[in-house]
Write a structure and sequence with these properties.
By secondary structure, the chain is an alpha/beta fold. It has eleven helices and twelve strands. Bound molecules: beta-D-galactofuranose.
């Protein structure tokens, strides 16, 4: 592919991926923000009298990526800063461990339960038990697929609708390009993996020159990303791959290792676009090995505990709380890296 075509493909891929990521970081739950809406009282506890200490149970997915570690640090640091009694449980990426933790929070009778659901489905029974116990629920980072939106008070995550419209007008003006794309998917069944795959396919459907020729889960981890990229490169189609779209930076960083081990130049021979915006991704862009990362802000601690304190005080909380993200490319990475918070 000529240099010009590569640049076009990259530009298109970056834009396409940027739009894809929009649905990537968190799944729109379809509800509309309604600040006047008071959390559903049925089943929820009456606002407890001001306590010396608010008690929150938090079930975290695991520690699979730099993004997740930054997310955990933000939540734990903010709880400490506000004097909140945080019961924090790491589920090692297993839904059954999350459900066990949620049930333990009911027994402990905490004031609020919060969690980042590892996958979208399978939560109705335990969320009904929590509602019957009168404990409000806050979702962070990832959404759940439930029939009753009253099973949780609010969902805190990225909202890309506006940004999507903005970027959408941006890349539609670009001429078409060509790329044979390898895709590293996130955790099967998780909201970000579902949304990122769906969104990316919808976007590149408008560009016949952009084709996904290999796609497999790398489970959001660096090790698996490297292993799967190595298998892609060893496959018959491996020699045709000109671009990689990775559902998160950790898998992209693993893939960069595999690309180098295959004697190719990541970011040059194979253009790479990923998601999250972790510090190591900026380092890779400065080194010319990654071409673009679309931020998915993990620093949700302050928004989470603002919501918790409002719930406990009986104040209204919006059904959707938005986090803000940006798109970062190699061209400005050396400057951007100086102000990264994670
Ligand atoms: C973002 C978050 C994803 C990150 C991954 O929605 O759920 O999980 O993109 C993390 O790095 O493992």
């Amino acid at each position: 592919m000529s240099r010009m075509h590569r640049r076009l493909a990259l530009g298109l891929l970056t834009a396409a991926s940027a739009l894809t990521l929009l649905s990537g970081c968190s799944k729109q739950d379809g509800s509309t923000p309604n600040s006047s809406e008071k959390p559903k009282a049925d089943g929820a506890k009456e606002p407890s009298a001001p306590k010396s200490q608010v008690r929150v149970g938090f079930s975290q997915i695991g520690a699979e990526s730099d993004w997740r570690k930054a997310n955990t640090e933000s939540i734990q640091a903010e709880a400490k800063k506000r004097g909140i009694d945080l019961q924090f449980v790491d589920a090692q990426q297993k839904q059954e461990n999350q459900i066990k933790a949620l049930r333990s929070f009911i027994v402990q009778d905490v004031d609020v339960i919060a969690f980042s659901p590892v996958v979208e489905t399978g939560w109705e029974p335990v969320l009904k038990e929590i509602k019957d116990a009168g404990i409000p629920v806050v979702l962070t980072d990832r959404a759940v697929d439930v029939s009753d939106p009253d099973l949780f008070v609010t969902f805190i995550g990225a909202d890309f609708v506006e940004e999507d419209a903005g970027r959408g007008s941006g890349w539609r003006r670009r001429p078409g390009g060509n790329a044979k794309i390898a895709e590293l998917q996130g955790t099967p069944g998780s909201a970000p993996a579902i949304d990122r795959k769906k969104g990316f396919e919808e976007i590149i459907a408008g560009y016949p020159g952009l084709q996904i020729i290999k796609s497999q889960t790398g489970e959001f981890t660096r090790a698996k990303g490297r292993e799967v990229m190595e298998s892609f490169l060893k496959s018959p189609e491996g020699k045709d791959i000109t671009a990689l779209f990775s559902h998160n930076d950790d898998m992209a960083l693993g893939a960069i290792q595999a690309i180098e081990e295959a004697g190719l130049k990541p970011g040059v021979d194979i253009k790479i676009v990923s998601i999250d915006g972790v510090h190591a991704a900026f380092e890779a862009m400065v080194a010319g090995k990654l071409n673009c990362t679309v931020e998915c802000n993990p620093l949700l601690g302050p928004q989470l505990f603002d919501a918790v304190e409002a719930i406990v005080a009986g104040k209204p909380v919006e059904k959707r709380i938005v986090t803000k993200e940006g798109v970062f490319t190699q061209e400005t990475a050396a400057e951007d890296i100086k102000t990264r918070q994670y």
